Amino acid sequence: MLVKSSLLEVMVMSEGIDVLILTLGFEPGPLVGALASKLPKASQNGITVIVFVPSFKDERAERAWRQLSEIFEMMKFKAKNATLIRYVVDLHNFSDAIYQISSLLSKYRDKRVFISLTGGMRALILAVFISYLLVNWKITPEIEVFLEGRGESILLPPLAGLVGMRVGEKEVRLLAHMESDKVYKVNELCSILNKDRSTVYRYLRTLLEHRLVEKVDEGVKLTALGVLISKFLKNL
Questions:
Q1: How far, CA to CA in Å, does 175 sit from each of 4, 179, 189, 234?
Q2: Are residues 157 and 165 in contact, defined by beta-carbon separation less than 8 angstroms?
Q3: What digits encode the pLDDT tens for the residues 12-45?
Q4: CB–CB of 105/138 below 8 Å?
């Protein structure tokens, strides 16, 4: 029984953020908001803040960077060993830009990364997002996007796990039977699939690894990403 229970344990990320990714626009406000909320959550080893900026010269962006740098110096006391890095991305060739960004992100694939799409050129934001999808993460980052003109952000599902996902037909069948916001006990899933407990535990282990389901006190339920996939399967 102890072995079966261990299959349902969620892989918990280490506490704290190791790397914060931001995208620079013409205003530092969204980046400052991201810093204010994420710096206090830095890991014990410190936090590296990487700001992606396009190679195209623009005085508004330069001014925003200077303001951000000054604010960061005043705020970095909130985190241990906080470092701010400006990373210039050449957007003249979009494929090269994706390669450039993904190569950098890959260096942090085993770190706790938080990506905040805070502003900037659409091409830059798109390049960062595509790069996030392509990296073979050991720890899937959290990613948010700021809503322009509203001063707030929304957290996105962990879509990076979709690329290269290896979920078999039987696990997919289990997803298709699950409803959003409903908690399922293992025995209930056994009845739904007409399978024994060891088989269902094996399916759940795969779904947990891909963050399609999550463990709760009463059993398991779909994650936000799992809900998306489940709804898609129901419409096939």
A1: 20, 8, 10, 9
A2: no
A3: 344 799 999 999 988 898 999 999 999 999 999 9
A4: no
Q: Find, among 105, 82, 81, 101, the residue nearest to 91 by Cα.
A: 101
Q: pLDDT tens, 43-91?
A: 999 999 999 999 988 898 899 999 999 999 999 998 889 999 999 999 9
Residue 172 has pLDDT above 50, yes or no: yes
State how far the Cα of 13 lies from the Cα of 111, in Å rounded to an integer: 9
Q: How remote is the C-alpha of 143 from its chain's centroid? A: 4
How distant, in Å, are the alpha carbons of 50, 53, 128, 184 from that of 122? 18, 12, 10, 41
Contacts of residue 139, Cβ cutoff 8 Å, sequence gap at least 6: 13, 14, 109, 110, 111, 112, 113
**Average confidence score pLDDT of the chain:** 86
Buried b (16+ CB within 10 A) or exposed e, 170-205: ebeebbeebeeeeebebeebbeeeebeeeebbebbb
Identify the DSSP state of 12.
P
What pLDDT, on a 0 to 100 scale, did the predictor assign at position 164? Answer: 59
The C-alpha atoms of residue 41 and residue 191 are separated, in whole angstroms, by: 42
68 class by beta-carbon count within 10 Å (0-12 exposed, 13-18 middle, 19+ buried) = buried
Q: For the whole prediction, is pTM greater than 0.90?
A: no
Q: Which residues contact 80 (CB under 8 A, 6 or more apart)?
A: 42, 44, 45, 46, 47
